[in-house]
């Protein structure tokens, strides 16, 4: 898995560098500020791909004494750096657009520029879709962020092409700065989205996708002895996932039986995750006067109250720090 991440991020870096040269050549022959915006964003692509290459390398390293949870969180930092660079490029493009509105350049060879930008946009689109697909498959935020960035670059490139076509056919040179300014706003917004996601990961904000997939896995293998699961916390760093939860078991089980139930739940979670999974389970005894109402053990010999409900396990009630009998109160 890590080797595949490494391969795709190196491909991204190499392709980004080549397209950077093509875009700056396109600006050189056209003197178009709108095309310059695309070229400047490609500088960000190259820098971000270089940083992403290092983050993929670091996140693949095993945990050590100084990093007991591994190095996967570097991918959040990588996405944040990439988003920040995108926003800075957008701000510079905004400045350049306003400047060229008052001091315009003479536009030349727009046909050749359009063809070159079309080529780079097509390549970025194919690579961006591939990186997003691989990022989801390999649980890599860095690959997903790089893919999203390239798709953003693709969209801006093709919108830019439309703008340059309009300039070419109308002869209205001032539109070059107008289109560049509109692109800069879009680029800044896209960068903000990456920074927001990065900060959320670094601050251990709950990941709804990771939580829901964990809940679904547990529900698929739910056992009657697992009376309830609560106080569940799910954190994901790159391809590493960490889960803490409390498991309510019948109070009459001996220590060996409790161990077996805990180990079975851990195996269920670990076997259904392609990356590294770390599970910590705290076992709680049931409270007969409160848990009997929803306990699903039909042949329980110490039952005090009949079963009168079955509580569905959801991300909401499994995340609360309380046994599920509180839902019946």
Key terms for this structure?
transport, 329 residues, mainly alpha, transmembrane, CDF_Transporter, Cation diffusion facilitator family transporter, three-stranded mixed beta sheet, 64% helix, Alpha-lytic protease prodomain-like, single chain, transmembrane helix, Alpha-Beta Plaits
Explained architecture:
With 329 residues, this protein is mainly alpha-helical. The protein folds into 2 domains: 2-202, Cation efflux protein transmembrane domain (Alpha-lytic protease prodomain-like), CATH 1.20.1510; 208-328, Alpha-Beta Plaits, CATH 3.30.70. The chain is 64% helix and 9% strand. The protein is built from 10 helices and 3 strands. The protein has helices at residues 2-30, 33-59, 74-102, 110-138, 141-170, 175-202, 208-220, 255-271, 288-291, 315-319, and strands at residues 228-237, 240-249, 277-285. It has a 3-stranded mixed sheet with strand order 1-2-3. The radius of gyration is 27 Å and the shape is elongated. It is found in: Membrane. It is a multi-pass membrane protein. Belongs to the cation diffusion facilitator (CDF) transporter (TC 2.A.4) family. This is Cation diffusion facilitator family transporter. The chain crosses the membrane at residues 7-27, 39-58, 79-102, 114-131, 151-171, 177-195.
